[in-house]
Amino acid sequence: MAAVVILGTAGIVYSRDQRQPDNTRPFAAAPGRPADHWHAAIGYYICGTFVPNLPEGEDPLGIHGHGDNVVHIHPFVNSSAGKRATLEVYFDTVGADISDDRIELPGQDTKRTGDRCEDGPGRIQTKVWDKRNPDDPGRIIEGDPSAIRPQDNQLITIAFVPEGADIPKPPSTPTLDNLSDVTPPPTASTSSTAPATTTAPDPTASTTSSVPDPNTSPPASTSSTTRVP
Ligand SMILES: [Zn+2]
Ligand SMILES: [Zn+2]
């Protein structure tokens, strides 16, 4: 009896899953849905020094820089959206080649695990701050940085330093407040005087949040589907 109920539920979840393959943000544009436009600050900290901003490159996919060491994420196509919106796409456009044991940046010497910095042998370590809050201590992400999916307003420092070295926030952090391709909201003073005006953008907000909500769980339901049989 119970097994039948579980299988039935799994079947429903599964079919819904098939219709909507990847509802992870950032979204590419779709009918009735604009593309997301996210920004993350990024820096490359090699043996204790941040290298200069990487140049802007060609970008057919919608994850790029503007010579500002900011990852601009507005996927043009599904192949660079959602779970495929990785730093690898960005590295390709700015001419960087980074893996878990090697970092090659335009105009810089390639560094490999064990190459010496002044304080000892270096290795690739990525530090990420999810919040702009100065109290956020950040966290280290091990492994290949190109697999990281940058999030909106995140700070990312890809470091090649000895184990345990201090890894600072990327120098491009303030650029997130001063982006050349984003018009600052003119409502800053208006919204505090007239809270009623805030109702205008609400329909969009509620639409956006109601769409991904039921689908945030598919990764989990996929695994439960696998478990049932
Ligand atoms: Zn942008
Ligand atoms: Zn752009």
UniProtKB/TrEMBL annotation:
It comes from the Bacteria. Residues 103-229 are annotated as: Disordered. Residues 103-121, 128-142 have a biased composition (Basic and acidic residues). Residues 188-229 have a biased composition (Low complexity). This is Uncharacterized protein.
